[in-house]
Amino acid sequence: MSLPPPGPLARSNYLSWPPGAYQPDADPNNPAFNPASVLPASGLPSFGDAALDAEQYHRPIERLHGSGLHGAGVAFGMQIACTVGHPNVTVAPGLALDAAGRHVYLAVGGQAEIGATASVPNTPPNLVPVTAAGAVFPTAGLTGDHYMVAQWRETWDSASYASDPNITQYNDTPWLQLITAANYAPDVHVVLGKVSLDASGNVTAASYGDVGGLQRSGVSVPAQSLELRRAVTTASPGADTAAWGAVGANQANFGNISAPGIFLNGYEATLEVGAAGNYGDVLVRNGSGDLAVSLIGDTGHVVVGGPGLNGEVRMLNANAAETMSLEGSTGSAVVQRLKPFTSSLAIDVDARFFRIHGWDLVLDGRSGASNRALVDYNNLLVVNYAGDYKNGVEINGAGLKVDGVIRDGNNIPLMGNPARKASFAYLFATAGSTQRVTQDVDLGYSTAFTAYCSITMIDSTSDFDYDNAVSVEVYEVDGTPTSNGWVTGAGSKWGSPGADTNAHQPMVTGVGRVITFRLASIGPDVAAAAIGIVFYE
Question: What residues does 141 pair with on adjacent strands?
């Protein structure tokens, strides 16, 4: 409080008018209360009647104010203090409200009730003084866990009445007790703290209470809205205040007074969570109570999403159009553009596989156009699609290895490697009869090749005349005859009509695996030999 609290409270017992002995039936707080006892025989209103109206109006409205606008709890002060290893608990001066809205006021210069049976009728009060340090509660005879509670109570000022029967009043004397959890009454008790006692009544530990159970709490403000106003200077007559937001203070701090952990600054529109030695977290839960968004100050990270809820972060531009999102369901980042943090840095992708699911890879850093460097086209990878790069494609380096078939502009396979592989086959036909011998070269796989053949020997065993002839050819590729070629059989020496007497091409370029060569030695007087050679990738 900014001002010192008032002194001890006392209530005059006007209901006992005229002055005389205390009348229990004239006290509205006594079960024996009888309104007729305050009226004179004439039935006309009296001082007691007027006092009854005040008693039945002012005290109830005080309770309505306390319970309806603040709720139960500690308003200020009322801290407990003790020393571990020593007995007794001191309750500091202060104010609390019980569930019924009654003010439990422990005032400096006043008294506090500490008797265990103060509520038993005809029990003399057990009062202790309240100093600036507070009221001392003895712990002798107690052991185990106890809660220090305060309860509203008034005590008849018998000493004043004994000295002058015209002085009839009640003194505000809060009832302090150390009780177990089983004896806690939420309608009348206000918890101030918790202490643990050993068998000798010495304090072993103290705290504000149990989390989720009995614990010290402050009063609240159960309002749907809160508007604070501040004084302003204005030329408008009478306009000396102005609303300052939903919560009108420039700054609000929450937490320990000396080191608050949450700062609300309306003037600078900032919210700070955490302080030195106490990192801040911001936790947002969904309708099921599961964490949905977490800002973790301890490790400086953000968690979005949780049980049954995929996290997603969206970025909007000034026109409220979505330009980027991080999607927890697929683990993907949806962006319109990737840029390095500074112009001097590259974008590093640390992944074993880097997959691009778009159709075209466009490189326009220097060309300034949307030139398509690579295009995924019907299961075909096209380099420099549609000739976008007008100067063609240049490949630099120590060498180029191409695994596959290289074709020219007319889709004709090219032999791209000058140090190409080669295989060959020997063929031999003896003299004395018409022979057509074949020999295969199996490359092991289908590939581009160039095959040609040549006669290496003609051996005439007698006079060489018209009935003798020799030919060599690339006869088949993968079992399919090559095109009929350069010699068409004529004369009886090549064979009967209808036989395969044509000589096929001596050189063939194509794609295949098994290339078959054929040597023909016709006539009784000649033997021949030949070689077939295949160059391939």
Answer: none
Q: Which helix (H) or strand (E) holds 379?
A: none
CB 188 within 8 A of CB 152: yes
* 162-186 pLDDT tens trace: 887 766 778 899 999 999 999 999 9
Domain ranges, residue 275: 229-279
In this predicted model, what pLDDT tens digit does every residue of 315-329 receive, in sequence order?
999 999 999 999 999
Q: Are residues 47 and 109 in the same domain?
A: yes
**pTM, two decimal places:** 0.48
Q: Is residue 106 part of a domain?
A: yes
CA terminus-to-terminus distance, the chain: 96
Q: What is the 3-state secondary structure (H, E, C) of 119-186?
A: CCCCCCCCEEECCCCCEEECCCCCCEEEEEEEECCEEECHHHHHHCCCCCEEEECCEEEEECHHHCCC
Residues 132, 264 within the same domain: no
Residues 196 and 74 grouped into a single domain: yes
Nearest to 115 by CA among 85, 151, 75: 151
